[in-house]
């Protein structure tokens, strides 16, 4: 690992302690009861959502979302000029940056963006672009920064919802609000809004079965117009399961949309008085 | 509570009404498949006219204002050379911008007469505050400015002593401390109380 000149250098290598905590366990297989989840939810139940706008004073628009224990802060800044561009563009641009805080995951994250965070930044940008009226600010760029404070599963879906609310709070013209949700698939079980433990289970394939259904699907959609803006899939899932999971996610996104609307209406009523 | 009866609050993507000959989509809204939808989170205003009614949505935050052709802007001169000078646009009308935009003022747009004999260093200096009008955009990343009017030009300039100079005619300004005269393209600024009388 190269020495970082801009930070205090700690040890070259450090390994989290929890890797050694299961050494004495006899059974290697993962035990999980799919009929009852660890937090007493049924398989098609979302976690509680808390959403609030206007929490970052320096930003033009901001939003904070809690999805169970997952906590994400999103900031939107003023449209700014693209200084290094010479041609004229009739469309504006959205720049998205997705970042996990170093303390947000079980394994400590570094300060720079790694490959997963860069991928999530592109997914966040693709999810928001169909909803924003880019032709209203030609030749300008809107900056969106999403920071995950606590990653307890479904962080990408929470960041998409927070970014959509922050853009509406900033006064950026939009065709509609974007809602997103995540589903985990393990054999015949569909776990709505998985936690980080359930995400690990759904990403694991049993040793003795080759064509085992497992994976995670995140779907973002404009629920008011029945339009899907982004689908992100990890794992090995057959076609029928994908279709069924997509229908479940679309229905859940439509159910989440009133939460975003009520949060914005509350903000407008507070500012109007 | 009576005030809240007349308030119509909407969020982006919310359907407002049918788009027909009576209901017309105004700013902050868009039409799609025969309906008017909202683009912003804010309050709905209905502007009644003779036979039509315009539906508008006003956002809660102040809009990010982009200069449009024809606007009077306040800018600060940053770089001066023989053919043009570069400016930083600070205000649009009475509204202070949160982020400055870049403008360019060409030699041919400084004044309306005697264009061939203009010398840029006798019209502007770096640090001057000028009033200018935005021209139609030709380059993608810079706003074209023009001061080819009597009311446009330098309004605030500082001398070498750092004192704000006083305009004495339309081409010169004088330092009240050292009485030294400098050349500027001076704006004919009308006092505000005179405007109020008109």
UniProtKB/TrEMBL annotation, chain A:
<dbReference type="GO" id="GO:0003723">
    <property type="term" value="F:RNA binding"/>
</dbReference>
<dbReference type="InterPro" id="IPR050080">
    <property type="entry name" value="RNase_PH"/>
</dbReference>
<dbReference type="GO" id="GO:0005730">
    <property type="term" value="C:nucleolus"/>
</dbReference>
<keyword id="KW-0698">rRNA processing</keyword>
<dbReference type="GO" id="GO:0034475">
    <property type="term" value="P:U4 snRNA 3'-end processing"/>
</dbReference>
<dbReference type="GO" id="GO:0016075">
    <property type="term" value="P:rRNA catabolic process"/>
</dbReference>
<dbReference type="GO" id="GO:0006364">
    <property type="term" value="P:rRNA processing"/>
</dbReference>
<feature type="domain" description="Exoribonuclease phosphorolytic">
    <location>
        <begin position="45"/>
        <end position="173"/>
    </location>
</feature>
<keyword id="KW-0694">RNA-binding</keyword>
<dbReference type="GO" id="GO:0071051">
    <property type="term" value="P:poly(A)-dependent snoRNA 3'-end processing"/>
</dbReference>
<keyword id="KW-0271">Exosome</keyword>
<keyword id="KW-0539">Nucleus</keyword>
<dbReference type="InterPro" id="IPR020568">
    <property type="entry name" value="Ribosomal_Su5_D2-typ_SF"/>
</dbReference>
<protein>
    <submittedName>
        <fullName>Exosome complex component MTR3 isoform X1</fullName>
    </submittedName>
</protein>
<keyword id="KW-0963">Cytoplasm</keyword>
<dbReference type="GO" id="GO:0000176">
    <property type="term" value="C:nuclear exosome (RNase complex)"/>
</dbReference>
<dbReference type="InterPro" id="IPR036345">
    <property type="entry name" value="ExoRNase_PH_dom2_sf"/>
</dbReference>
<dbReference type="InterPro" id="IPR001247">
    <property type="entry name" value="ExoRNase_PH_dom1"/>
</dbReference>
<dbReference type="InterPro" id="IPR027408">
    <property type="entry name" value="PNPase/RNase_PH_dom_sf"/>
</dbReference>
<dbReference type="Pfam" id="PF01138">
    <property type="entry name" value="RNase_PH"/>
</dbReference>
<dbReference type="GO" id="GO:0071028">
    <property type="term" value="P:nuclear mRNA surveillance"/>
</dbReference>
<dbReference type="GO" id="GO:0000177">
    <property type="term" value="C:cytoplasmic exosome (RNase complex)"/>
</dbReference>
TrEMBL record, chain B:
<feature type="domain" description="Exosome complex component N-terminal">
    <location>
        <begin position="9"/>
        <end position="46"/>
    </location>
</feature>
<protein>
    <submittedName>
        <fullName>3'-5' exoribonuclease CSL4</fullName>
    </submittedName>
</protein>
<dbReference type="GO" id="GO:0005737">
    <property type="term" value="C:cytoplasm"/>
</dbReference>
<dbReference type="GO" id="GO:0005730">
    <property type="term" value="C:nucleolus"/>
</dbReference>
<dbReference type="GO" id="GO:0000176">
    <property type="term" value="C:nuclear exosome (RNase complex)"/>
</dbReference>
<dbReference type="Pfam" id="PF10447">
    <property type="entry name" value="EXOSC1"/>
</dbReference>
<keyword id="KW-0271">Exosome</keyword>
<dbReference type="GO" id="GO:0003723">
    <property type="term" value="F:RNA binding"/>
</dbReference>
<dbReference type="GO" id="GO:0006396">
    <property type="term" value="P:RNA processing"/>
</dbReference>
<dbReference type="InterPro" id="IPR039771">
    <property type="entry name" value="Csl4"/>
</dbReference>
<dbReference type="InterPro" id="IPR025721">
    <property type="entry name" value="Exosome_cplx_N_dom"/>
</dbReference>
<feature type="domain" description="Exosome complex component CSL4 C-terminal">
    <location>
        <begin position="99"/>
        <end position="135"/>
    </location>
</feature>
<dbReference type="Pfam" id="PF14382">
    <property type="entry name" value="ECR1_N"/>
</dbReference>
<keyword id="KW-0963">Cytoplasm</keyword>
<dbReference type="InterPro" id="IPR019495">
    <property type="entry name" value="EXOSC1_C"/>
</dbReference>
<dbReference type="InterPro" id="IPR012340">
    <property type="entry name" value="NA-bd_OB-fold"/>
</dbReference>
């Amino acid at each position: 690992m190269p020495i970082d000149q801009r930070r205090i250098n700690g040890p070259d290598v450090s390994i989290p302690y929890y890797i050694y905590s299961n050494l004495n366990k006899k059974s290697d297989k993962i035990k999980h009861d799919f009929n009852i989840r660890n937090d007493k939810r049924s398989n098609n139940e979302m976690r509680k959502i808390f959403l609030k706008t206007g929490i970052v004073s320096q930003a033009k628009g901001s939003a904070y979302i809690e999805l169970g224990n997952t906590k994400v802060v999103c900031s939107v800044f003023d449209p700014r000029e693209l200084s290094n561009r010479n041609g004229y563009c009739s469309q504006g641009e959205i720049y998205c940056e997705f970042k996990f805080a170093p303390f947000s995951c079980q394994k400590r994250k570094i300060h720079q963006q790694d490959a997963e965070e860069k991928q999530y930044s592109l997914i966040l940008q693709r999810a928001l672009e169909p909803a924003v009226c880019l032709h209203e600010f030609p030749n300008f760029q809107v900056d969106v920064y999403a920071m995950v404070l606590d990653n307890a599963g479904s962080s990408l879906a929470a960041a998409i919802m927070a970014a959509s609310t922050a853009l509406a709070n900033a006064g950026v013209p939009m065709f509609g609000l974007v809602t997103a949700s995540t589903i985990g698939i393990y054999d015949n079980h569909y776990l709505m809004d998985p936690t980080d433990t359930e995400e690990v289970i759904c990403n694991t394939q049993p040793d003795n079965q080759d064509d085992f259904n497992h994976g995670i699907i995140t779907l973002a959609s404009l629920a008011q117009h029945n339009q899907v803006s982004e689908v992100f899939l990890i794992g090995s899932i057959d076609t029928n399961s994908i279709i069924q999971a997509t229908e479940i996610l679309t229905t859940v996104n439509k159910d989440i949309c009133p939460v975003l609307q009520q949060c914005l209406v509350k903000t407008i009523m507070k500012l109007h008085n | 509570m009576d005030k809240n009866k007349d308030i119509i609050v909407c969020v982006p993507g919310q359907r407002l009404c049918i788009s027909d000959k009576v209901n017309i989509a105004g700013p902050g809204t868009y039409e799609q498949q025969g309906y008017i939808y909202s683009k912003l989170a804010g309050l709905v205003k209905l502007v009644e006219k003779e036979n039509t009614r315009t539906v508008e949505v006003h956002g809660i935050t102040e809009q990010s204002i982009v200069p449009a052709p024809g606007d009077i802007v306040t800018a600060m001169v940053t770089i001066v050379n023989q053919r043009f000078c570069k400016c930083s646009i600070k205000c649009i009308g009475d509204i202070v911008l949160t982020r400055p935009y870049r403008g360019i003022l060409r030699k041919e747009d400084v004044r309306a007469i005697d264009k061939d004999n203009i010398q840029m260093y006798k019209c502007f200096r770096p640090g001057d505050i000028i009033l200018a009008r935005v021209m139609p955009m030709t380059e993608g990343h810079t706003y074209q400015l023009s001061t080819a009017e009597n009311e446009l030009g330098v309004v605030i300039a500082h001398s070498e002593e750092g004192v704000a100079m006083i305009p004495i005619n339309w081409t010169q300004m004088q330092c009240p401390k050292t009485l030294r005269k400098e050349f500027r393209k001076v704006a004919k600024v009308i006092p505000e109380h005179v405007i109020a009388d008109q």
